[in-house]
């Protein structure tokens, strides 16, 4: 009698795996679709941030450029934004480089 039940158990285990894989696949597709259509932050209205480009002159530093664009705000925040916007790992810049300066 025990041998009669073993195939049924194998079928159930296989069915559970198939259902689990199908659910995982559906959830993955839903998450990717949600991200592609901009589902993150639905209801939040954010205007695109304008940016200015600056060509680095000899003697310029990220700090000096940030200081001239900080508008009286904290220069450290401006430096961080410039580094982030330009994907810079360090504040070392060269004359002739073009930097994106985000503006709030």
Task: Explain the overall architecture.
This protein is mainly α. It folds into two domains: 1-45; 51-102, LysM domain (Membrane-bound Lytic Murein Transglycosylase D, Chain A, Roll), CATH 3.10.350. It is 52% helix and 10% strand. It is built from three helices and two strands; from the N terminus they run H-E-H-H-E. It has helices at 2-36, 62-69, 75-85, and strands at residues 51-55, 98-102. Strands 1-2 form a two-stranded antiparallel sheet. The longest helix is centred in the first third of the chain and has 35 residues, at 2-36. The chain is elongated and about 65 Å long.
Short description:
It is built from three helices and two strands, in the order αβααβ.
Report the structural category: mainly alpha
In the CATH hierarchy, the architecture of the largest domain is: Roll
Give the helix tally: 3
State the share of residues found in helices, binned by percent: 40-55%
Mean pLDDT: 76
Rg, please? 27 Å
Q: What is the CATH superfamily classification of the largest domain?
A: LysM domain
Under CATH, the topology of the largest domain can be stated as Membrane-bound Lytic Murein Transglycosylase D, Chain A
Main sheet strand line-up:
1-2
Low-confidence stretches: none
CATH uppermost class of the largest domain: Alpha Beta
Strand content: 5-15%
Provide the number of structural domains.
Answer: 2
Describe the global form.
Answer: elongated
């Amino acid at each position: 009698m025990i041998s009669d039940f073993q195939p049924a158990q194998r079928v159930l285990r296989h069915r559970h795996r198939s259902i689990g894989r199908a659910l995982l696949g559906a959830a993955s597709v839903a998450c990717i679709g949600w991200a592609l259509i901009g589902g993150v932050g639905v209801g939040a209205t954010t205007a695109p941030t304008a940016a200015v480009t600056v060509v680095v002159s000899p003697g310029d530093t990220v700090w000096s450029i940030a200081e001239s664009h900080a508008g009286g705000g904290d220069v450290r925040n401006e430096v961080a934004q410039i580094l982030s916007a330009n994907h810079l790992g360090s504040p070392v810049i060269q004359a002739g480089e073009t930097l994106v300066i985000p503006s709030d």
